[in-house]
Amino acid sequence: MSVEDREEIRRAYFIQDKSVRQIARELGHSRETVRKAIESAEPTAYTPKKPRPSPVLGPYKARIDELLAESERLPRKQRFTGRKICELIRNEGYTGSEPTVRRYIAQRRREKKKRQVYIPLEFDPGSDAQVDWGEAMTIIAGERVTVQMFIMRLCYSRKLSVKAFPVQKQEAFLAGHVGAFHHFQGVPHRISYDNLKAAVKRIL
Predict the structure, then answer these.
(1) Which burial class, exposed, middle or buried, applies to 101 when counting CB atoms under 10 A from its CB (0-12, 13-18, 19+)?
(2) Nearest Cα to 144, choosing from 152, 135, 153?
(3) Model confidence over 148-159: pLDDT tens digits?
(4) Would you say 146 and 137 are in contact if contact means Cβ atoms under 8 Å apart?
(5) Are 72 and 79 in contact (CB under 8 A)?
(6) Are strands 190-193 and 143-154 parallel, antiparallel or unpaired?
(7) Long-range pairs, 121-128, Cβ under 8 A, ≥24
(8) 112 and 67 both lie in a single domain
(9) pLDDT beyond 70 at 73
(10) Which domain holds residue 167?
(11) Which of 65, 79, 129, 168 is buried most, with the most CB atoms less than 10 Å from its CB?
(12) Is residue 122 part of a domain?
């Protein structure tokens, strides 16, 4: 799984509040893959696979692209689902499976998103930082335990501030910021978050 795929899954789950089942259906991944992307703070190491040929779908790819473009012009609630697109091309002679169509649609959407979000990044010293959570194993009182690592990285210098917490909670999220500001001896002008629940929840 690529970093882009992992981030797309996490964005759908944490920000757009979609279910595992819905994400798997829309993006063409298995539910197990979606769960791993949600639970892991690091990209899962998969052995790259060659794209599987789809000779049955091949003649209909251009038609699917046309339907996707047409769907984008429709009101959101009227846009074509993967099932609807499959039904339309079956009426035109397609004999393959619906999952094959869904995988192609998910691939085309990922490609479009990559083209839309690619922006060369340039940062001034101290202007920007990025925050994410990670996991690490450590020994506490003679037992191996998993700790949650709050990580803030300065975008210009790539310097890190890392602090361990027992769980990812709002209190730890805020304490991680305070610790990082002390470590860097200053506060970045802008901080971006890697689709963190703690960053988007309302503080009550």
Answers:
(1) buried
(2) 135
(3) 889 999 988 889
(4) yes
(5) yes
(6) unpaired
(7) 121/155, 123/155, 123/156, 124/156, 125/156, 125/157, 126/154, 126/156, 126/186, 126/188, 126/189, 127/155, 127/156, 127/188, 127/189, 127/190, 128/154, 128/155, 128/156, 128/188, 128/189, 128/190, 128/191, 128/192
(8) yes
(9) yes
(10) 128-200
(11) 129
(12) no
Give a yes or no: residue 64 inside a domain. yes
State the Cα–Cα distance between residues 29 and 61, nearest whole angstrom.
19
Do 47 and 106 share a domain, yes or no? yes
Structure-token pair, residue 36: 């791993």
The residue out of 90, 117, 144 marking a domain boundary is: 117
pTM, entire model: 0.40
Sheet containing strand 190-193, strands side by side: 160-165, 143-154, 128-140, 190-193
